[in-house]
């Protein structure tokens, strides 16, 4: 069975040496002292390795079952869910007014990574609930908050998000689910939703579905869409559960990965629903939680990669094959361990430098969300909105690639299900698809985010890179190995951004042919910035005699690997964008 | 005529319910991370992270379990340098209700006699607030290893001492009685005692709980009570620290291995008597002189 150990030291390094949260001035961060964050991460790590990780393989093998309208989760999930609730892990960063712990989102993100690495499918039950809680926190009436938030924050009730329909995935304007107003102010919801994660299961007393549907008078397309609360069991005024609502799971999907999470067809047959937020403003209500939800999916991408990488390392140290080209490293054994071979080293360094860079990027993103939420920092809000499609698209594309690389280290044994490496690959795959497929993330980036507010957010990003480079340029070593490559990547990115701004109107096909390339070069530049910042932090800690020198030196070497071997990808992506859409759009559909 | 001012009278405090338990914990270097200096052969303590003495976690868990079942409170008490506050805060994060650190330059260099003296003073001071029902300690520490501090406290406080306890069978709050299992050579003793008492818990008798987020937050926000020798109620400082410690370490050395190696012998037999006879025969055959000595002594 694959092993998992929470990367606490790496997380502590990010929180206290890179993000320097103690002096960041964000309300709530003052409490996050190293001892405290260390204790929380350690306790979360224990839950992950003792409770969640042992259920990852078995949950995958067993999957969920639908019997007479009831979905049964895999063996052990119920007890594990109870343990999560009891430990207070479901409510880490929720509103204390409704029973949450009120910790910063950054802390919830760090703990979330640990849980996702240990068992992604299991963690989705609470992850989706968290998303629904955020929506109700942001848009609910005082009564709705009082009714739904406390049991949902405690995870006695869980939540879902219902957007997708058979004919309507990316293009939500095609939605058919209807909402008819009733004299008592409620709505009757009718329609079919598909692919609804955690739509039905046996872990909670009640399930609160958030459903997008069309109410009369809203007009065509997405403008007519509103958001509704549709509980599985209606809730009595005293908070107790009332009659069963007319919503049921018609089917659960047989799918590639995340078998422990029930993906359901949900039938709404005149179910009672309550408007959440303003009528016909459902899309806007969804958008307010988008940054958070997409950061959460980006996190899944690298968190699964982290678990896969850990097991690649274990195997590479254990498996004896071949001899080191420079002479036997294990002369008394029949062969040397895989880790002596340069090609194995290359892939392990690729994996390590991606995962650690991705973690830094995600933690930074989470800190921007905290700045925006807790300080009303508009600049941080604009920046995280720009970076959200990059976080989601880049980290899930690369996360999947990394899981495949980790599987490759295991050779043929990686292809055998019992060994668990195949599961990482299968689980990581969905993150590229849901919460907006990655191609659509690229569209969002170049079509919406790049030009937002006259391009101010993207200019702010370039300024950030520029001033960081300037601040540290005096250090010759840093300049050669980190700042130079970062500057070059940022220059490529700026050149590409100019092409999009110019071509958007005149050659939209040409521009959009390069959208995914732009998302990827943006991702590389962000990870380059992260690695440069981590190198500075590691160097500072070394100079000032803090921390374990072996760990800090490894940080710098890993950063050099990323800068030298991955950041140059921006040049290739730029070349593709410059090539435009000629070849891409030239052939007629019949030619394919 | 003046109305009696009833509101001004303080309402009587409700009598505390449940158990009042104090667990003595010691902060020790994490022996798993200690390295020995390659040249001087001495232990390198610098930079070694500290932990709660692992044996004390069994005591803490048992105390928390009793509190969860019978109500009341668990206080953790430690004597040590100011940084021992970390260990206490960790115990709070695991669910303890209160923490007290006694720290004073005059405690430095305490041996087991002085340690149990200082801890007894603090326990006595704590008991003035509310009588203590049970004092828990670990079986021993991983650095001092003496297993003397618990019994020392019991003797000084005049408490029944229940050592090497592997399980608490029952507790009767009303009758102030407790029944425990004690592991002893060759068997298990079932002991009944009056409360208050002192219990030293055996290792591997339970598993320390995982901290909850609620407890971790409370621990981060809680104040650890810090007492000097006087505040702890120490009346005679001469009984503390180095001056109060009759133990003198003359020399520390690593024993050199003996030249001859031990050998394991096995014999077979159907009954214990047969096995015994076979073993004696074998030993006497190996060492004829032994036979003469033993038979002579037997006469
Ligand atoms: C396991 C699983 C769990 C899910 N959980 C949920 C859930 O909980 N709630 C929920 O509402 N949905 C959920 N989904 C649905 C998921 O969000 C959608 O599958 C996803 O948004 C894509 O929609 P689609 O499948 O209809 O693909 P389509 O929209 O048909 O897209 C197909 C492909 O075309 C591309 N594409 C589409 N439009 C454009 C365009 N304009 N320009 C360029 N490319 C385009 C896409 O990138 C994609 O690659 C889940 C799906 C799965 C498989
Ligand atoms: C031969 C010898 C010489 C020593 N010389 C010195 C010396 O010169 N200088 C010096 O500083 N130390 C010295 N020590 C160490 C010191 O005596 C002990 O560390 C200390 O008295 C506690 O004893 P212990 O660690 O053996 O605890 P044990 O008796 O093994 O511990 C039993 C239990 O008592 C409790 N307990 C023990 N200590 C504490 C504490 N501080 N606070 C709260 N609870 C506690 C714990 O619950 C523990 O599980 C010496 C020890 C020995 C054996």
From TrEMBL, chain A:
Keywords, in A-Z order: FAD, Flavoprotein, Oxidoreductase
Cofactor(s), by name: FAD
Top-level division of the source organism's lineage: Bacteria
GO molecular function annotation: flavin adenine dinucleotide binding; oxidoreductase activity, acting on the CH-CH group of donors
E.C. designation(s): 1.3.99.41
InterPro entries linked: Acyl-CoA_dh-like_C_dom (IPR025878), Acyl-CoA_Oxase/DH_mid-dom (IPR006091), Acyl-CoA_Oxase/DH_mid-dom_sf (IPR046373), AcylCo_DH-like_C (IPR036250), AcylCo_DH/oxidase_C (IPR009075), AcylCoA_DH/ox_N (IPR013786), AcylCoA_DH/ox_N_sf (IPR037069), AcylCoA_DH/oxidase_NM_dom_sf (IPR009100)
UniProt KW Oxidoreductase keyword: yes
Ranges where the Acyl-CoA dehydrogenase/oxidase C-terminal domain occurs: 281-444
Span of domain Acyl-CoA oxidase/dehydrogenase middle: 161-269
Ranges for domain Acyl-CoA dehydrogenase/oxidase N-terminal: 43-154
Keyword field contains Cell membrane: no
Pfam family, one: Acyl-CoA_dh_1
Residues covered by the Acetyl-CoA dehydrogenase-like C-terminal domain: 461-587
Catalyses which reaction(s): 3-(methylsulfanyl)propanoyl-CoA + oxidized [electron-transfer flavoprotein] + H(+) = 3-(methylsulfanyl)acryloyl-CoA + reduced [electron-transfer flavoprotein]
Role summary: Involved in the assimilation of dimethylsulphoniopropionate (DMSP), an important compound in the fixation of carbon in marine phytoplankton, by mediating the conversion of 3-(methylthio)propanoyl-CoA (MMPA-CoA) to 3-(methylthio)acryloyl-CoA (MTA-CoA).
Record-stated family: Belongs to the acyl-CoA dehydrogenase family.
Protein name per Swiss-Prot or TrEMBL: 3-methylmercaptopropionyl-CoA dehydrogenase
Record organism: Phaeovulum veldkampii DSM 11550
